[in-house]
Design goal:
With 209 residues, the protein is mainly beta. Helices cover 3% and strands 45% of the residues. The chain is built from 1 helix and 16 strands. The strands form 2 sheets. Strands 1, 2, 3, 6, 7, 9, 12 and 16 form an 8-stranded antiparallel β-sheet that branches. It has an 8-stranded antiparallel β-sheet with strand order 5-4-8-15-10-11-13-14, covered by helices on one side.
């Protein structure tokens, strides 16, 4: 195995060669010392509040960030949360020579009834956005609270572009990658259940091949 490692500010380039498989990590947040500028935000309401950093090792997460539901806003007709909370990154900039290919992250839950999920949450599990554009990436499955490592190539999932007043339209990985050449943010869903949950995430990375 050959490993080449170059670090500059928040950008890490890690090249791993195993046989004929090459994986390059262009940007990675591993939360070793602190929350690295991440925050937690309700999708619509409220400010983005600095997220808690934990120095524990759960086996899947090792020094991670964690968020907890602070707003349960449902009504008697609809048991789903009307406003979901997300982990949100600081602004990032893609500086690698190769194009972004996939997003990866580890996740686990510490509390929550994952038998009662909000409807259709797998289709809004990840949001990659600029100040003027927003792309919603689906997860290929519902998340049920267990410890998991996700590796999600952009071309394998459904991508919807949020046109705001004009609703959503189907998009492509090519349009997403073009947008990521500007400053962008990553948002990862924490609000999977209809009730209170506590979620931790770690090792959030954008990779290329």
């Amino acid at each position: 195995m050959f490993i080449y490692h170059l670090e500059k500010a928040m950008t890490i380039v890690l090249l791993i060669l195993v046989g004929t498989i090459i994986c390059v990590v262009g940007i990675k947040n591993s939360f070793i010392l602190n929350n690295e500028g991440w925050c937690v935000k309700q999708k619509i309401e409220g400010e983005c509040k600095s997220v808690e950093h934990y120095r524990y090792n759960t086996g899947v997460l090792n020094r991670y960030i964690g968020g907890k539901d602070t707003l349960i806003n449902v009504d008697w007709k609809n048991k789903d949360d009307r406003d979901l909370w997300y982990f949100v990154s600081p602004y990032l900039k893609w500086n690698a020579d190769r194009e972004p290919y996939a997003i990866t992250f580890s996740i686990t839950s510490f509390m929550g009834n994952f038998r009662e999920l909000n409807e259709d949450v797998s289709n809004r599990a990840i949001i990659i956005k600029t100040d003027t554009s927003e792309f919603w990436l689906s997860l290929y499955e519902n998340y049920y609270g267990n410890a998991k490592l996700y590796w999600i190539p952009f071309h394998t999932v459904t991508i919807l572009k949020n046109n705001f007043e004009n609703g959503f339209s189907k998009s492509s990985d090519r349009e997403l990658i073009k947008m990521m050449k500007n400053k962008y943010q990553i948002a990862i869903l924490g609000d999977w259940t209809r009730g209170v949950e506590m979620i931790g995430i770690d090792n959030v990375g954008i990779e290329t091949m």
